[in-house]
Amino acid sequence: RTIELVPADDKYTADGGESATDRLMAEEEPFGFVSATGTEPSTGIVKSLKKHEAKGLFLWGSTSGAEVLRKGEYAKLAWNLRGSLDAAATDVANAFAGAGFKKMGIVFQDDGFGKSAAGSAKRACEAKGLAVVAELSIAKTTKPDSGDAKELIAKAKAAGVEALFLAATYNPATVVIRDARESGWNVPAGVMSSPDTMVRQLVAIEKKTGKRMTNAVLGCADAPPVNATDLPAVREYRELSDKRNPQLPAQIADPNYRPLRYSTDALEAFIGAKALVEALHRAGRYLTRDGLRKAAESMVNWDTGLGQPINWGPGDNQGFDSVWLPGVKNDELTLVSDMKKYLTDKPEPVVKGDASAAPSASAAPS
Q1: Directed axis angle between helix 112-128 and helix 39-51, to 10°?
Q2: pLDDT category, 276, cuts 50, 70, 90?
Q3: What letter does residue 254 receive in the DSSP assignment?
Q4: Considering the entire predicted model, what is its pTM?
């Protein structure tokens, strides 16, 4: 069978996700929904699916770690690959505690994702015995070329923060880290969202200013760094990306956003597609949505090629149980072998050079 992907713009809002889903169900009669980006759009999608629950439609592989897709009335409508926000926060808290930090700050963007991620960060700190000494909000629309976080940084420093949870997408996260480094504060930061574009922006700022921005920065990645070519799935993803050279559909392309050649977001979606195809094969020749659900439930300890299996089962829609925490080295995300050393080392000097302005983007995955 041929799989047809029909794109729709959800406006990166809950209302946009719900209305786009309603429209697609009326006009396209889809078998299901795949690869939604962000907590708010994903919430809108499952709200729409709930209204048509009798049809058995589903959301497969959302890039949201929010609990709304994992617990409660919407959980059975979503098949999740990525680790939850609770899992991401736990991994970051363990990294900070292992490096000897005790006083935490939480910076969250002012939307559903930010608030959900901040809640996960607080719970993880409480479980680990870490003190949350500052909780600070930043607008989700904050961008490197038009906003700053200087007042926020001053408040965090005054509160005695030793390490930061950034419950924010890449633009606000870039601004917080940039202004911390500009102030001479090399506070460790764990970014609870996809880190690729943030790293690209921080590297561009480094090259313009000659100041190190990326030291002690961790990303919560839901796939390994794309340079981890010792992993079979990473090699396959890169080889097929080079061979196929996929382009964004015109309906959802943004002229102000330049996609990366390889990214953890794309790798995550690639693994989601591989898992979906595996479930389709298991469902057999006479495909139904109920048959697909039963097939997905049979994917216990399924080898993804990433060194971490997917474990679904009856009543269990959560695939990965943890996240990857890459750091930044030589201008790219890389797995960290000595976490305490990475988070506590003094920053290396930057060789100042020319770089284009940090790119802005209107779509922010969470």
Answers
A1: 110
A2: very high
A3: -
A4: 0.78
